[in-house]
């Protein structure tokens, strides 16, 4: 039966690949959730930097699936806005420093930058606490920094130095700190792990959540759906958060995904699409998601609509599968840092000079910590060092294999 069907001329006909190859690249589909971060309104702004005031986000920032969308009104303070601006600017500076060090061949191996996507790490961090958890893929430097690390520890890790966040032994894709579970190179693998972290929180009766971030490419992985299933069955307080930056390596999302509405992918799990270029929308949505998950309603699927300015990794110029115009257009019209800057000025939160001062602080911080990272020594070159820092002290197995039997390390 099977053999006959395999012989059938229809199944052996030329695959459809030629059609895909010949097809002209589709323009980015129009979205109802825009990525314009500027237009929002505000009432009276108090002079006290710590006094909250109300901001109303634009109409299009959220789109909900099987869910009442969060309120578009949120309370912020001047100092929070300043801090968010500082965080996004520092991440961008840090990524630019990594780019430059890579081009000088001081950083080797894999390196994926998040330039353009800074509002997601920043908005989430400003909505959760250090008792909550975050896990993501390899585009992880900004998350590692905001979760509690330093620019120095991130850059030193990239340089393979002792003061790195993983003592110089992990590199770009393997950054961890308290409340941050990496830094994962296997596409999609962090999603079930994130569900497990959130399951542990529920099991231990902790009022916390885990944001499990993944890309639009990773969203097609089978294990993502397995994690959705178990999380819904057990009402696990996990937030599945897709960073839809429109490309998975060199493939546009609409060529790889039969359904590009990633927030509806959970089917039986409610979803929320968010303008991922608007840091206030991200903050508001992340706070809503945490509240939703922790209240016992179970998981939520989020989609942050965003854009990656650079190539997929350092070896990709990022211009062969998309036009330069598209990148220039996104940078000049939807940039998350410029969007917040414009609001801050319009609302009279800070003056132009005060914003320049924040820019300077971010630049000085990154410059200083990059110098310190470069001064950090390389890890000791012995086997002891190689097998250290893999397990939580006290939880080591009896031995770990080396390349050969002679290199087996006994703890
Ligand atoms: C299981 C697995 N398959 C393939 C790869 C190679 N790979 C690395 S990144 C990537 C694309 C992922 O794209 P996306 O999830 O959209 O994340 P982005 O890079 O856009 O942040 C692929 C296919 C991998 N690392 N792991
Ligand atoms: Mg992607």
UniProtKB/TrEMBL annotation:
Coiled coil: none annotated. GO terms for molecular function: pyruvate dehydrogenase (acetyl-transferring) activity. GO terms for biological process: pyruvate decarboxylation to acetyl-CoA. Its EC number is 1.2.4.1. It catalyses: N(6)-[(R)-lipoyl]-L-lysyl-[protein] + pyruvate + H(+) = N(6)-[(R)-S(8)-acetyldihydrolipoyl]-L-lysyl-[protein] + CO2. This is Pyruvate dehydrogenase E1 component subunit alpha. Keywords: Oxidoreductase, Pyruvate, Thiamine pyrophosphate. Its cofactor is thiamine diphosphate.
């Amino acid at each position: 039966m099977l053999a006959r069907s395999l012989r059938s001329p229809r199944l052996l006909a030329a695959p459809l690949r030629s059609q895909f190859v010949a097809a002209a690249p589709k323009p980015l589909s129009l979205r109802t959730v825009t990525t314009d971060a500027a237009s929002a309104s505000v009432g009276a702004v108090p002079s006290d930097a710590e006094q909250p005031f109300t901001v109303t986000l634009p109409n299009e920032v959220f789109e909900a699936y099987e869910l009442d969308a969060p309120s578009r009104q949120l309370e912020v303070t001047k100092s929070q806005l300043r801090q968010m601006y500082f965080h996004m600017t520092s991440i961008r500076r840090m990524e630019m420093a990594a780019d430059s060090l890579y081009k000088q061949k001081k950083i080797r191996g894999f390196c994926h930058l998040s330039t353009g996507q800074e509002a997601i790490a920043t908005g989430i961090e400003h909505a959760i606490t250090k008792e909550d958890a975050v896990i993501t893929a390899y585009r992880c430097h900004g998350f590692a920094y905001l979760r509690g690390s330093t620019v120095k520890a991130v850059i030193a890790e990239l340089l393979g130095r002792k003061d790195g966040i993983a003592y110089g032994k992990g590199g770009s894709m393997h950054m961890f700190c308290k409340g941050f579970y990496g830094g994962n190179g296997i596409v999609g693998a962090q999603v079930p792990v994130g569900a497990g972290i959130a399951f542990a929180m529920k099991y231990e009766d902790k009022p916390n959540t885990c944001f499990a971030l993944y890309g639009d490419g990773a969203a097609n992985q089978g294990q993502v759906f397995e994690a959705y299933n178990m999380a819904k069955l057990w009402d696990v307080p996990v937030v599945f958060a897709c960073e839809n930056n429109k490309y998975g390596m060199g493939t546009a999302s609409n060529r790889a995904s039969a359904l590009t509405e990633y927030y509806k992918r959970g089917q039986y799990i409610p979803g929320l699409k968010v303008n991922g270029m608007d840091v206030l929308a991200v903050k508001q949505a992340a706070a809503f998601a945490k509240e939703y998950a922790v209240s016992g309603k179970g998981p939520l699927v989020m989609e942050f609509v965003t854009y990656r300015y650079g190539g997929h990794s350092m070896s990709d110029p990022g211009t062969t599968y998309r036009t330069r115009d598209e990148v220039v257009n996104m940078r000049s019209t939807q940039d998350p840092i410029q969007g917040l800057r414009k609001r801050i000025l319009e609302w009279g939160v800070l003056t132009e000079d005060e914003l320049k001062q924040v820019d300077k602080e971010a630049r000085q911080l990154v410059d200083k910590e990059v110098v310190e990272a470069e001064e950090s020594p390389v890890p000791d070159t012995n086997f002891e060092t190689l097998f250290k820092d893999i397990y939580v002290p006290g939880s080591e197995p009896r031995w770990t294999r080396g390349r050969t039997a002679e290199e087996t390390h006994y703890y």
